[in-house]
Amino acid sequence: MIIKPDRYLIFVYGTLKTGQPNHYVIKDPDNGEADFVGYAETVDKWPLVIASLYNVPYLLHKPHFGKKITGEIWSVDINMRNKMDDLESHPRFYRRFEIPVLLDDHGVRSPRHIVARDRHKYYSFHKCPGPIGVAYSL
Asked: Hey, is 132 helix, strand or coil?
């Protein structure tokens, strides 16, 4: 697939992936243009944590820790990127940064932007306010 010069490559790894709760944002043409590029895995390991009352996945900006993360790469226009930024509260809550990924065709590509969380709060303990064992699909 040839990527248009006015597009941004975005790696999604959580609720924006196909079949996940926020994927509707990518599929809604009123939000802008988005084309699926392929499935990918990060070249390096990253910590992916599931946190908050809503079991939200966060990719921490701590390279070389954790596991390689699988996700999808989407080519999006500026309108879609802005809509995704609004959803992810960039730059207040999440921050975009560049990392290399390995596409399923085994070619290394570096998206211009990947949405990741780099301001995760650390805790000394955890108390679950709701039922334990609630499943979350990544």
From this structure: coil
Specify whether the CB–CB gap between 94 and 86 falls below 8 A: no
Q: What is the pTM of this model?
A: 0.77
Please tell me which residue in 41, 72, 88, 98 is annotated as part of the active site: 88
Inter-residue contact 20 to 50 (CB < 8 Å): no
CA distance 96 to 43: 17
Residue 88 annotated in active site: yes
* CATH class (in words) of the domain with range 8-116: alpha beta
The domain limits of the chain are 8-116
pLDDT in tens, 3-42: 677 898 898 988 899 999 999 999 999 999 999 988 988 8
